[in-house]
Inverse folding.
DNA sequence: ATTAGGG
DNA sequence: CCCTAAT
């Protein structure tokens, strides 16, 4: 993974934290008991948890990936199951909206399970292929977002398949293909998939978790904020992404060549919860690793799965030809931003197009592009003969990813009004808020005046590297790296311009970059589109700008993401992690689940932390500390520099001890990460350091001169304090006690202190 | 929100 | 640097 923990603890025996922590100022000051009791953790902690997960994701070797992942996944699954059962909450959550639901028709009898030994054998079958066989009914229900248990059964079956298991014996027995699952069986399989079995069965297929959208949605507790529903007349629908995908249902992730995971498209997915999404992303890398093993990358996953499931190619071919596709030959011209899938199609003729999805709606945008000069070309013809060219470039783009939306609608609103609202929102975005970007070989084609021929889009060898993206209208959103969400179009072999990070992107002294937690939130898609006002930082940094970009690009939940990653080089070399806070200008309406304390609205993070997501994600880190996860994480350690000590000593000399707020304001007002508690603690430490012998001191040595001043200041102000108390309590204090205290001080240094 | 102090 | 209690 991209990010690395920057600093470790090791300070006075403090435990080395796996994740950093927000600064005190940004943390919610809630009574401890209340915090523990609440079924939530702070957004920072949640983020930290996720961050830790990602780190683990990186640090885990491929061989060991499955190990921890299986455990975590099992925990996650378990939580999911538990949540779904215990949670009768029917709150609404509209997280994903498939603008065009693309469903393959599989009427071909060849797709029966009987002829699908690979499925029964549990061979490398993803959800898609499984569905296209015997699970058609379930599939349909899945699409329609209906029945949870069936979903669970499906998901379970896929999960526990040998696809992720070396030996089928390790896993729970596959659910019979055509059998209607009973509740008991579902329960059993759910358990198996979630816990007992999962430990033995590494789950590699990220799609697995997608297999429970409808039920999950309805029972999604992420929206189940305390204030939600009964008290809050509004329901917020975070429509976070629109997986509007390109042609057919191939969930093909592999052929982009990118080694980084990306959001998986799920054509049949309805509305998974946030947590699932996150998990899916985590698992995406595994999925890829599997997928990348496929030899022939020109086929889609679907085909891959089919192929791998059959012993010989003839069988595969038969099945392939039997697919219920209206065209016989397909040349995949366009690859979506997310994947290589058959986004555009160069067919043999327009007659092939457009095809329709099962809803009977044209699911594609068919556009013809004309070459202006020279000889336009058609890929199909080009392959036949370079001499006779069709002057048209035929593209077929089935779907686009649409940026995040957020909708708020009264609880009393009708479904119809909800539909209209969503439609309006989508229409508004598609109407004016977006523009289309063209990517060729991962690079944006910015010159709109170039012809396709000039650009090379019409060339045969460029067809498979052409991509489109929906981008926010520049007038609405500041330029960002990955506006439309095109993670896979980022070529990992092409250096990306640093300008992608904007003017504020700077290196730290060690050539690393700090990632602001707001960006983390965005990256994780865990942030609710509310107002972010985060004044703290995380001590994670990317190894390089490129890594950072890649990382961010993989999570294009928010077009403005990159802009929220502001990195400031520390002005003090001793404070390598110093960075400013960033305030999001996200102006969306906050979700009811935004529950951070707004007494002070300024320095609080208003981030929704869905209870379900919290619980789910909390189980992700290595140590399954479902309970302990509520414990906040430590901040990153930031040793005081000499100059800071100097400033502290000077301020205390002037103001005295016990006025840490004033000290803060006077000397550390600009250091957002230094709270007055920190200063107080540092003074305490300094005092202790000054009193012990130099041999006992550790860390960066503090000049003796400063330590002397610390002692003197402490003595002086102790005397002052005593004097004041003596004055305020003239009779109650014993005279000899105060005189003793005064006598212990070196009053002759007082003038120096104050001077 | 601050301060003080133990951990 | 964390946590809590007391202001």
């Amino acid at each position: 993974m991209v990010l690395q923990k920057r600093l470790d603890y090791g300070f006075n025996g403090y435990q080395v934290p796996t994740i950093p922590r927000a600064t005190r100022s940004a943390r919610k000051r809630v009574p401890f008991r209340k915090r523990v009791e609440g079924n939530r953790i702070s957004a920072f902690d949640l983020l930290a948890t996720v961050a830790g997960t990602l780190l683990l994701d990186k640090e885990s070797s491929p061989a060991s990936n499955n190990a921890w992942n299986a455990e975590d996944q099992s925990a996650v699954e378990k939580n999911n199951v538990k949540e779904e059962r215990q949670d009768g909450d029917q709150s609404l959550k509209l997280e994903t909206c498939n603008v065009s639901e693309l469903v393959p028709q599989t009427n071909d009898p060849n797709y029966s399970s009987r002829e699908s030994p690979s499925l029964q054998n549990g061979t490398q079958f993803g959800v898609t292929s499984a569905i296209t066989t015997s699970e058609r009914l379930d599939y349909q229900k899945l699409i329609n977002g209906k029945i949870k248990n069936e979903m669970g059964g499906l998901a379970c079956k896929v999960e526990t398949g040998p696809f992720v298991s070396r030996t089928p014996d390790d896993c729970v027995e596959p659910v019979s293909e055509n059998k209607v699952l009973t509740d008991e069986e579902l329960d059993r399989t759910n358990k198996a998939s979630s816990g007992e079995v999962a430990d033995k069965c590494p789950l590699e297929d990220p799609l697995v978790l997608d297999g429970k959208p409808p039920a999950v949605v309805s029972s999604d507790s992420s929206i189940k904020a305390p204030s939600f529903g009964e008290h809050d007349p509004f329901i917020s629908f975070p429509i976070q992404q629109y997986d509007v995908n390109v042609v057919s249902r191939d969930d093909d992730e592999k052929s982009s060549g990118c080694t980084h995971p990306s959001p998986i498209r799920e054509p049949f997915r309805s509305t998974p919860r946030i947590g699932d999404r996150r998990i899916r992303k985590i698992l995406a890398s595994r999925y890829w690793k599997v997928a990348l093993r496929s030899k022939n990358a020109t086929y889609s996953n679907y085909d891959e799965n089919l192929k791998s499931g059959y012993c010989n190619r003839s069988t595969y071919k038969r099945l392939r030809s039997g697919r219920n596709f209206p065209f016989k030959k397909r040349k995949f011209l366009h690859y979506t931003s997310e994947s290589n899938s058959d986004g555009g199609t160069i067919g043999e003729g327009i007659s092939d197009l457009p095809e329709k999805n099962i809803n009977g709606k044209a699911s594609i945008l068919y556009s013809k592009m004309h070459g202006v000069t020279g000889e336009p070309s058609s890929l199909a013809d080009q392959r036949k003969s370079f001499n006779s060219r069709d002057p048209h470039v035929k593209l077929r783009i089935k779907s686009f990813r649409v940026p995040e939306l957020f909708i708020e609608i009264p609880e009393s609103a009708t479904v119809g009004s909800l539909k209209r609202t969503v439609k309006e929102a989508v229409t508004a975005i598609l109407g004016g808020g977006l523009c289309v970007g063209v990517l060729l070989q991962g690079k944006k084609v910015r010159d709109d005046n170039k012809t396709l021929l000039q650009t090379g889009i019409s060339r045969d060898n460029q067809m498979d590297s052409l991509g489109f993206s929906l981008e926010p209208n520049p007038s609405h959103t500041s330029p960002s790296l990955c506006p439309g969400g095109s993670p896979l179009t980022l070529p990992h072999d092409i250096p990306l311009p640093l300008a992608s990070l904007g003017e504020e992107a700077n290196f730290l002294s060690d050539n690393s970059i700090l990632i602001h937690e707001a960006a983390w939130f965005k990256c994780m898609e865990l942030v609710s589109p509310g107002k972010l006002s985060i004044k703290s930082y995380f001590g994670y940094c990317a190894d390089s700008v490129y890594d950072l970009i890649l990382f961010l690009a993989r999570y294009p939940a928010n077009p403005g993401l990159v802009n929220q990653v502001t990195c400031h080089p520390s002005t003090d070399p001793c404070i390598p992690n110093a960075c400013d806070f960033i305030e999001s200008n996200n102006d969306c309406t906050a979700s009811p689940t935004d529950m951070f304390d707004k007494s002070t609205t300024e320095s609080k993070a208003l981030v929704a932390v869905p209870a379900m997501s919290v619980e789910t994600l909390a189980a992700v880190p290595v140590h399954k500390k479902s309970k302990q996860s509520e414990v906040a994480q430590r901040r990153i350690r930031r040793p005081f520099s000499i100059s800071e000590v100097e400033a502290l000593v000077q301020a205390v000399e002037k103001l005295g001890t016990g006025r840490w707020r004033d000290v803060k304001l006077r000397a550390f007002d600009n250091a957002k990460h230094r709270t007055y508690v920190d200063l107080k603690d540092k003074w305490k430490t300094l005092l202790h350091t000054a009193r012990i012998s130099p041999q006992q001191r550790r860390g960066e040595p503090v000049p003796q001169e400063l330590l002397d001043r610390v002692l003197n200041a402490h003595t002086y102000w102790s005397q002052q304090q005593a004097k004041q108390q003596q004055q305020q309590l003239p009779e109650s204090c014993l005279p000899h006690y105060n005189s003793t205290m005064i006598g212990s001080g070196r009053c002759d240094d007082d003038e120096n202190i104050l001077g």
Notes: Residues 12, 29, 600, 658-661, 676-677, 680, 684 of chain A lie near DNA strand B (CB under 10 Å from a C1'). The longest strand of chain A covers residues 434-440. The two ends of chain A are 53 Å apart (CA to CA).
